[in-house]
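Students often ask why we bother encoding 3D structure as a string. The short answer is that it lets us treat folding as translation between two languages. Here is a chain of 162 residues written in the first language.
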Amino acid sequence: MKYNVAVFSYDSLHRKTYDILISLYLSGVDNVLVVAAPLVKLKGVNTDKLFTPVTYGEYEHPKDICKRFNYQYVVCPHDNFPKLKDIFNTHGTNIAIISGARILRKDVVSLMEYGVINYHPGVLPETSGLDSLYWMLENSVKPSVTCHFIDHKVDAGFLIKE
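And here it is in the second language, the structure alphabet:
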């Protein structure tokens, strides 16, 4: 069985994307397509008032990593089903990993023969959604990372590993 991997990411510097792309390369995965969503300014979110300043250290932009590892890189909104379908059919993509994305639509998830994998920074379902650190503290849940296939619910689906 040959996996043709898509990575859903943001078209920006992003630590989780950096880590996943490096891990795929070091694991010998060579047929990777990164689908990077353009950044969208969210209504009601003032990024000038973050409690912790965003810093990126020595991370490379995903586009530069892809060039170095001979991975394909395309910029496409993750909710553009017709374009994603065409991109994935051309690439032969059959499994995906989320390194950075909003909630994916059910029709987009259904494009993957073997599913879409997500890494969540907390125990599921106790810390689902955003702010998992807050929910860990609020619900007295041990710190953990959960790897799971996604389905139509937020941070749900078949548990691969905790």
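Translate back mentally: The first strand starts at residue 5 and ends at 10. Keep this in mind for the problem set.
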